[in-house]
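hi! just following up on the protien thing from before. the input was this:
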Amino acid sequence: MENKDAPSLVSEEQGRIHGLISAWLIPPVPPPAPLCALAALIGVGMAVLIRVAVLGLSSGVGATLPFFPAIMMVTLYAGWRWGLVPTLGGAVFGWWLWGGRDGARLSQDELATVVIYLICGAMVVTVAEGLRGAMRGLTRTRKDLDQAETRLRVTQTAAGVGPWEFDLETGELYFSPAARRNLGAPLEGPIRLADMAKYVHPDDQEMARERVRAALAGSEEYEVEYRLADTSQGERWVHGRGEVIRDETGKPTRMIGLNFDVTNRRRAEEQVRESEARFRSLADSAPALMWTTRPGGVREFVNQAYVDFAGLSYDEALTLDWRSRLHPDDLPNILKAQIEGEASLKPFSLEGRYRRADGEWRWLKSFSQPRLDSSGAFSGFSGIAFDITDAKRAEENLTNINELLSERAAAAVAERDAAQAQLLQAQKLEAIGQLTGGVAHDFNNLLTVVIGALDVVARHPDDVRRRERMIGAALAAAKRGEKLTQHLLAFARRQPLKPEVRRVDGLIAESEELLKRALGDAYGLKLRLGGGVRAARIDAGQFEAALLNLVVNARDATPPGGSVTIESGAVTITKPRGELEPGAYLKVSVRDTGSGMDAATIARAVEPFFTTKPPGEGTGLGLSQVYGFARQSGGSVEIESVVGQGSTISLLLPVVEAAPSGDPALKADPIRAQTPSRVLLVEDDPQVAELVEAMLSDLGHTVVRAGGVEDALSRLDADPAVDLVLSDVIMPGGKSGVDLAEQLAASRPGLPVVLCSGYVGGDQSRARAGDWPFISKPFSLETLAQALAQARAS
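and the predicted 3d structure came back as:
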């Protein structure tokens, strides 16, 4: 079969020779005058030389004939003006040869010969000039054609377009190099029709043949897209288009067309389909109503929540007229706001009541955002609507409460305080939630030591050495558990600030383990404490909660592998700075290596409920609580941040002098200083009561036990010798230990009362806020002795 990709070598060589002759004889750019003059002189000289060489100077025959080739060559090379030079030169040479050299006059025949020569020379010049113009035009046309073919070849190669041709009469196939590359066929050698099957994917071969047959039959245009059999570079697709050429009888004679690689388009389409599927899946899983519209307001997509709210099929939901679902009282305002919002081509919001499929009126708040196409032109709106019925009801309830404030001012204030305390409590519990896993791990380790030690003691009661070692280990583990519990209670307790003078560096160091638990193993924690012995008047628990909030926020803003640094140090403010007066301050900074904040975020960072976290991942109360604690403690909060370089949030607390060490007499052993007394122990847990009774007995006291408040009052009425009461706070029967203490303060004001509890609740807050000594469970014998001594001294 003829390979049309290989041009004829003979014709190519001939074309090259013709091109060289044309380029020499008729240059594309007119030669300069000196070269033209030289060519004219050479032409004249050659004509004279030929005449003299052949006939000499003696004969006048053929005097002008040798000049005609010179006229032709000079005219072709330099143009008709220079072609006149050899023409005139021939006339002068004939005159000279016929007698001009001897001064003889020309005969009438010789003059006629000269005239005829000049006429013929002019005609040769004219014909040569026309031939010269034609050849130059042909050269330009050939050059333009070559350039056009080059541009077409480059364009086809760059675009991946490959022309092909199929001669139905001879069975010959022609594929251009680009077409061969698209098919993955060799660039050289013939391609037969039977060879096509090995380049097309087996699953697409029959489809491709059917398209060819249909095109030949005239039922449709030839256009097909098929996969290639070669999958070494992944799945590849080729798109082919063609036209059938028919003769005057309608019989197909040829097919011509082109193919091009559409793999990238196919892959992009597949990515678009996958992206659309992910978007639809995400949208359908959202609890909010979502939709998109085209210009003019026609909806082109709605999610499942939208369909469910409408109670219609998907197609019906697309065309639903929401005016039929709007509450009559809201319809005018909604329509007006919608028309204005859509006309502005800017984001807008609507809020109104809509009838759900079950007939219930629900409040919906929608947000619409204009969409732009790739060229930046408006292409419709995308919207989302949230059901805010519950919020509306809560708002109505709040309005009703506000209307009753004049009658229930005290109750409303108390309710507000309770709500604020609940919000703060929720924030603390959220922070504690971060610690649950680590704390449980620590407690399990401690319980392992305690249970194991007690089991060893129980199995070997006579082994004094082992018993002492195991008891020491159990006591150490229990004290570690007590310390851990105290930290958790400090974070979770509900009570107003109880400021006391504390060394800030000491509080930070004590909280290190909890902070590490909050960060997790994916982050590093660094402490750089430079506060030294400097102290501040703060509530220790609230300080630790604020520090934990800052660390958790830093963790959330930092990718895994980052670090959080806590620094402390002294700063002196010489002039008012924001909310801070001049003076000495302790600066506690928490620095992260996260994404940082811009100026707009920093300006709102301490606003209540403002958060940059996704919905469900933050309450927006963390920094607000930290700021409130700092202001209540006489300080403030400073934020430094650079986008992409992390943030530093600093607490500035006024420095105060440390509390005096106290009277050495107060450091006496409280256990030995105990005075035997008759103690009423009020405890509803029998095991705890038995243990505390044993501790009181070790201190030399006589114990009377009661299981509740009413039982305790009965015992006191029956036993007036009781001179001290030790009561748990939480009691059965509806009354607490605080209620008992308050009643005894009224009925027996001189009777000392000590309260204890291991529960975080409102009654414990009342107990801590009262004048009675309070101890937290678990407590040691020394702690109990100190509390009893304090109660007697007060």
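The chain is about 50% helix and 20% strand.
The first helix runs from residue 9 to 25.
cheers
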